Amino acid sequence: MEHSAVEVDPVDIHPVDINRGAAPPAATTVAAVLAVKNLHRAKSRLAATLSTASEGDDPTTRGSLVLAMFLDTVAALRGAGVTRIVVVSPDDEVLATARRSDIHGLPEAPAGSSTTSGLNAAFGYGARWAHETWQESTDLLFVQADLPAATSASFIEVLRETPHHRSGFVTDRDGTGTVLLHGSLLHKSLLQGAADPHGSPVLDWTPRFGPDSAAAHRAAGAVELDPGRRRWADLRTDVDTATDLAAAHELGLGAHTIEALRHL
Ligand SMILES: Nc1nc2c(ncn2[C@@H]2O[C@H](COP(=O)(O)OP(=O)(O)OP(=O)(O)O)[C@@H](O)[C@H]2O)c(=O)[nH]1
Ligand SMILES: C=C(OP(=O)(O)O)C(=O)O
């Protein structure tokens, strides 16, 4: 999927071997985990803008935009050759949309019914499921589901540059958040035999998404890819606010998001 005219500085592209020390993962052995929360609660920061556009904050309208951004993120991943994709969500509409698009949907326990909840718990649950289900996977990607300008070209580059024996991550535009976190499943210390409530192995690496997640991932030993933030503007533009949406629009939105915005 190549909808965005993202400038890539050829001088800034690192040869694969410098960072990875081995061949890059074949995209077909990468498992990607996404998470989308309940559509009625999602994107509350966008609500004001959407309410102006559609005369009242209509959660259905907001939900369509969330679904569209999720589908554009998935389309960009697929264009990069990533086919093992699972989304964790407590929302039936998200799961139904996933089914229709041949994405595996994993129902998440409704809020309040589990001792662990929130984005990191959802990501962890999806990662365990992916590890058990796609056992020959070599790499795990946690990807934010609100990247409507994401291009396959950027995902391909990121996969080429992920470090082989450590986790790697890409920050958002301002450098404080995380849009993508990578872990090698071949790195044995990432895996632990301890049983979790679902009776499966627990990933010994906890995603630390949330406020200041870039610092949290750095502190946990993950390698920041392109720390100068000169590349992958399309991936770095997660959409939470009207300003983010304008920035994504400037870069080039995916087809689903363009269509959803048309109905606002
Ligand atoms: N499955 C799941 N996804 C979540 C959960 N919390 C957040 N997410 C997803 O993680 C991403 C970032 O979430 P947040 O920044 O907390 O919320 P948001 O919906 O993006 O925006 P705000 O409502 O404005 O905070 C979004 O794609 C959410 O749908 C959760 O508890 N479960
Ligand atoms: C959860 C995160 O982002 P946001 O809240 O901006 O979606 C994050 O950057 O870790």
Quote the beta fraction.
15-25%
Helical/strand content category: alpha/beta
Question: Helical content, roughly?
Answer: 25-40%
Order of helices and strands: HEHHEHEHEHEEEEHEHHH
Task: Name the hetero compounds present.
Answer: guanosine-5'-triphosphate, phosphoenolpyruvate
Overall strand count = 9
User: What is the makeup of the main sheet?
Assistant: 7 strands, mixed
CATH topology type = Spore Coat Polysaccharide Biosynthesis Protein SpsA, Chain A
Q: So what's the CATH class?
A: Alpha Beta
Rounded to an integer in angstroms, the radius of gyration calculated over CA atoms is 18 Å
CATH architecture: Alpha-Beta Complex
Cα shape: globular
- The span between the termini is 24 Å
Average pLDDT over all residues: 83
Ranges where pLDDT stays below 50 over 5 or more residues in a row are 4-21, 188-204
Keywords: GTP-binding, Nucleotide-binding, Nucleotidyltransferase, Transferase
Family: Belongs to the CofC family.
Pathway: Cofactor biosynthesis; coenzyme F420 biosynthesis
Enzyme class: transferase
